[in-house]
């Protein structure tokens, strides 16, 4: 009997193996078959179609159509775009070290990176680009301008710039260099005994830079009582850097993240390998809707291991890992190969790209399908929707008038005027936007077009369109006109109604002229609601512990 059972078992295993082999064989046959059809189809189309078909454009279209069936992170990277891929990994690129913005006919310099070729040449924010290597920059697309500014280190760029106020022009010969965008854009003490570190990307060596910033804070302030790690707006990057960063605050040997995909031999668990720098100091990680990938790995590990608190808004919910694969002619395939899982075992991927509606669009995982997990201390957490903060802070929404002033560069332009009118570098604590300066700004806006629609007016327009389509509008026109008249906004009153918000934006932009990059961040911290909540928790040990130990 036992012998016959063994024979039966081996037979079943053999049948299962054959079935799997046949399925794989069928799959490979279908691939080979369709590749043959594709090649024959292209050959016939190219030979007999009435017009010439550019092969590179046609194949690119085919590749893009295939990518439509995948997630947005799987992509084809041709050789000429590899620099962007390298920048995502290293934070380095060849260029002149400046940010730009195109408005109307001209492109202006908006930021100059400290120590860059542009900075060394004395170029300032507000300067207008007139020509690039002899070609007029008037009406040039911002993307094309950017291509001129970037290039191999050591190559020269001839650029003509116009002064924003007196319109004098000057020609510069700039030698491009390797520009290293710092992953830690700011660090310092923001309130009594509370340290703050702003991290913008997870590139090579970024965890080490965070560690150096943290150690400097501890050395300068021995009574440091807590630290805020700001990952808001951080799109992520290298997974290994996320693990190394976590290791600064988390004990050796702890699971930070695991990856699982179709190729099982690639599945991995990533654990901390070193003794932490400090595994006791109270820690808050700030997240926002645009915190993604490696940012979510760090936030998820801190939360799942109860090492600290997450404050702000729910993160993006990427939850996917990409690997680059080589292709002929130095091209690359950036392909999603796995999902990643936080220490509690949850995948925080918010959009399910394997399930699409009739229009081919992927949607968010519904709350009803999100599963519950627990942290090391038993706190409830959920999968399928990014990292939910332990202390949620409503995101700040700018008014329409503020958005318009930013979009049309009026705040930027006034900051330029202010800078040239006050060329001496002030003390870092100087408040720039007094009531008198704000009044000057209002005069600066006189005669300028900053027309816009409020959100209420936009909603009313949608209502009118819908009512017209459904043939209700004629009967409602009087009421509609009366409501529209009541809602008609006065731009001057909108400026005064949103004075505090506009003053803050002006303060940040002016500070950035005297203290590039760091100035804007430092000023914004004074009225940052997420930071305020983080500091409140760090300075209230009882509240901090209550959130770390809550069970509902």
UniProtKB/TrEMBL annotation:
**What SMART domains does UniProt report for this protein, alphabetically?**
PDZ, TSPc
Q: Which Gene3D superfamilies match?
A: 2-enoyl-CoA Hydratase, Chain A, domain 1 (3.90.226.10), 2.30.42.10, 3.30.750.44
CDD domains named among the record's database cross-references: cpPDZ_CPP-like, Peptidase_S41_CPP
Q: SUPFAM superfamilies, per this entry?
A: ClpP/crotonase (SSF52096), PDZ domain-like (SSF50156)
Identify the residues that the record assigns to the PDZ domain, covering every copy: 84-164
Q: Which UniProt keywords apply?
A: Coiled coil, Hydrolase, Protease, Serine protease
Q: Which InterPro entries match?
A: ClpP/crotonase-like_dom_sf, PDZ, PDZ_6, PDZ_sf, Peptidase_S41A, Tail-specific_protease
Q: Which chain positions lie within coiled-coil regions?
A: 473-512
Sequence similarity: Belongs to the peptidase S41A family.
This protein's name:
S41 family peptidase
């Amino acid at each position: 009997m036992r012998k016959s059972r063994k024979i039966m078992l081996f037979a079943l295993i053999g049948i299962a193996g054959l079935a799997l082999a046949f399925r794989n064989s069928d799959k490979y046959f279908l691939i080979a078959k369709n590749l043959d059809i594709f090649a024959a189809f292209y050959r016939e189309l190219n030979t007999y179609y009435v017009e010439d078909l550019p092969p590179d454009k046609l194949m690119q279209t085919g590749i893009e159509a295939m990518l439509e069936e995948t997630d947005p992170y799987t992509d084809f990277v041709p050789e000429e775009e590899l620099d962007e891929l390298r920048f995502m990994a290293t934070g380095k690129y060849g260029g002149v070290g400046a940010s730009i913005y195109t408005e109307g006919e001209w492109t202006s310099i908006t930021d100059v990176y400290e120590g860059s070729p542009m900075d060394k040449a004395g170029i300032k924010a507000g300067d207008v680009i007139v020509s690039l290597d002899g070609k007029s920059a008037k009406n040039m697309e911002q993307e094309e301008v950017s291509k001129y500014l970037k290039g191999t280190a050591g190559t020269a760029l001839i650029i003509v710039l116009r002064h924003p106020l007196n319109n004098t022009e000057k020609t510069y010969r700039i030698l491009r260099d390797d520009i290293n965008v710092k992953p830690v854009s700011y660090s310092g003490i923001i309130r009594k005994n509370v340290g703050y570190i702003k991290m913008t990307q997870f590139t090579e060596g970024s965890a080490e830079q965070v560690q150096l910033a943290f150690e400097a804070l501890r050395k300068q302030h021995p009574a440091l009582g807590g630290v805020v790690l700001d990952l808001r707006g951080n799109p992520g990057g290298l997974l290994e850097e996320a693990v190394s960063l976590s290791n600064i605050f988390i004990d050796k040997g702890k699971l930070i993240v695991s990856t699982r995909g179709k190729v099982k031999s690639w599945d991995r668990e990533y654990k901390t390998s070193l003794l932490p720098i400090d595994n006791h100091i109270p820690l808050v990680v700030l997240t926002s809707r645009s915190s993604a990938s490696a940012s979510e790995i760090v936030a998820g590990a801190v939360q799942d291991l109860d090492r600290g608190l997450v404050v702000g808004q729910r993160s993006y919910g990427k939850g996917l890992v990409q690997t680059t694969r080589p292709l002929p002619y130095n091209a690359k395939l950036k392909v999603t190969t796995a999902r990643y899982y936080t220490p509690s075992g949850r995948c925080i991927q918010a959009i399910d790209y394997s399930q699409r509606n009739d229009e081919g669009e992927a949607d968010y995982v519904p709350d009803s399908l999100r599963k519950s997990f627990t942290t090391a201390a038993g706190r409830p957490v959920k999968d399928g929707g990014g990292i939910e903060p332990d202390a949620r802070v409503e995101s700040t929404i700018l008014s329409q008038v503020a958005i318009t002033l930013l979009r049309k560069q009026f705040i930027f332009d006034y900051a330029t005027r202010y800078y040239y009118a006050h060329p001496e570098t002030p003390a870092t604590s100087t408040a720039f936007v007094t009531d008198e300066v704000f009044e000057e700004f209002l005069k600066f806006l006189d005669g300028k077009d900053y027309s816009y629609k409020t959100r209420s007016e936009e909603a009313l327009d949608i209502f009118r369109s819908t009512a017209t389509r459904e043939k209700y509008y004629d009967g409602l026109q009087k009421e509609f006109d009366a409501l529209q008249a009541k809602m008609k906004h006065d731009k001057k009153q909108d400026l005064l109604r949103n004075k505090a918000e506009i003053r803050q934006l002006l303060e940040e932009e002016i500070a950035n002229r005297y203290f590039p990059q760091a100035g804007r961040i430092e000023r914004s911290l004074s009225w940052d609601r997420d930071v305020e909540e983080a500091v409140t928790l760090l300075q209230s040990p009882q509240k901090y512990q209550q959130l770390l130990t809550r069970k509902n």
